[in-house]
Each structure stands twice: as C-alpha cells, then as structure tokens.
Amino acid sequence: MSAGPITRAAPPAVAAGGRTLEIDALTKRYGSTVALDGVSFDVRPGEIFGFVGSNGAGKSTTMRIALGVLAADSGEVRLGGRPVDLDVRRTIGYMPEERGLYPRMKVGDQLTYLAELHGVGRADARRAVSRWTGRLGVEARLGDTVDALSLGNQQRVQLAAALVHDPAVLVLDEPFSGLDPVAVDVMSEVLREKARAGVPVLFSSHQLDLVQRLCDRVGIIVAGRMRAVGTVGEVRRSGGTRLEVHAPAAAPGWASHLPGVEVVGHEGGRTLLSLDDGADDQRVLAAALATGPVHGFTVTTPSLTDLYREVVA
C-alpha cells in the first residue's frame, strides 16, 4: 500500500517566542542519483517531529541541508520565516549521526568551547555545561576525555553539545542509537522539556516504537520523497481498518476472495486483514465462521512500524 500526504493537526500550545522550522521543496542530486525530490514539511514550536525512513532515504541529507553543511540544488530552509544563514545556524542545536566530538579533549573544556563558538560568554557557558551534564548524568565525567567514555556516555555528551547554547531549534540525527533503556528515558524527557519550552524538535530514528510514543507528528521519507506527514494517529489511521481474526481451523487463504479485503499475515490460526473503505466486516465474520469456531474478531489500528513497512515496500 501507499500512504499519501495527510492533513496536519493544529500545533500544540507552547511558550511564547517559538519559531517554525520550514523545509520547503528541497531537491538534491548526486549525478544521476536523486537524493531528495521536493521534500517539504515543517516542525512547529513546541512539537517533537519524528523523521523516519530507511538508510539512504534522505534523512541525513535533509538535516545537513537544514544546517548548511550541504547546499540544496533547489528549495529553501527557513526558521521563523527567515532563510537559514550563518546567524540563524548559530541558534540551532545539531546532533549529527556521525558523532563530531574531539576524542582527546576533556568533556568540560570541549562543551564550554562549543558553547562559546555559538556566542555564549564564558561564565554562562560553564553554567550551561554544569546544568546539562548534570541533567544527562555525565557531570562526573567532565574531566575525562571523550575517548575514555562508553558509547552511551559519548552520546549523552553529544546531546549536551547540542544544548549548551540554549538553541531555538533542535535537529538530532539518530540520537537514540546505541542507548540503554535508562539513557533513552533520560534523553526522551530532555526532548519533551525543550518542546514544552517552545523549541521545535526534529529527530530521526529507526526505533519506530519510540517515535510512536514520543512524537507529536511524524514524516516518512522513501527514496528522497515524503510519503506521509501527519500526527502519529493520522499516519496510523491512513493504513485503513485492520481486523485480527482468530479462527484456528481456517486455512491461510480463507479471506483472500472477499472484496476489499487483503490478507496481511496468517500465523497459528490468527489472520490479520486490511479492509478498504466500504468493505463489509460482517461478511468477513461470516466467512471466518464458515471455517469453524471463531475465538477472536478484533478491529485494530496498524502500528507505526507496520505502516512503515508497507509504505517502504
């Protein structure tokens, strides 16, 4: 199946002063390879936007263009209606997928230096470093070099580097990769905290169960094109009605002849069906009963993971 663009919901209430990050019709080619083909979406003040797609779909390319690391062939990135130039980029907190910390530099010195590069004074930078390393649980490692840290702690320090200059927007590429469950919870709460303060938060992730729990809206990109954009609920509902039927005696193809019904999966007497609009669920029930006893007949909504698999396929 294919999911088209979805009507967007109203933005959440946020603190005053937030600005919308707009990704407007970005295209990017490398020779004959189309990396981005008219990619458009926005991230509103106070919302967490999950950007999902397979490796090579265009997520990192989009984020690098948003940060000015790459130039688009066409299209524009704006923050609060203003094109992203050097001054605007200084207000963005960025966490790249390929972690960019200096391995032999001490954590505290490095974070202070990075805050100062964004225009933060030395005293304020040190206070910010103390705050965020404490919040992220790495305050005891300020005197250690980055290469002496575990991968999980390096990840926490990398997030601190994106936060120490009090960014107006957060752009995070795979921030949860390699984290243990406790660290995932800590990082999730930090992102919620920034969103509550009115900051637009954009992050990519392959952990779709986490995206489903954490995000206000989500965008699915496939081969450089946006295939679905909307709230998590809207995107899930775009997959149509699902029925899970537990009919132990039914053969795998028992529902394949029914109009408007697609067999999504069959295992152990349980069949998952996708119903088009107008398909008759009572006819499905009658067909199931014709095979023998029916122990379960449940209407479900596809998870984001299920829908993603179908959209990508």
UniProtKB/TrEMBL annotation:
Transport found in the keyword field: yes
Keyword Transport: yes
Listed Pfam families: ABC_tran, DrrA1-3_C
Domain ABC transporter, chain residue ranges per copy: 21-248
Entry keyword set: ATP-binding, Nucleotide-binding, Transport
Gene3D superfamilies in UniProt: P-loop containing nucleotide triphosphate hydrolases (3.40.50.300)
InterPro entries, per the entry: AAA+_ATPase, ABC_transporter-like_ATP-bd, ABC_transporter-like_CS, DrrA1/2-like_C, P-loop_NTPase
Residues in coiled coil: none
SMART domains with a match to the protein in the record: AAA
Superkingdom per UniProt: Bacteria
GO MF annotation list: ATP binding
UniProt family annotation: Belongs to the ABC transporter superfamily.
The protein's name: ATP-binding cassette domain-containing protein
Organism: Pseudonocardia nematodicida
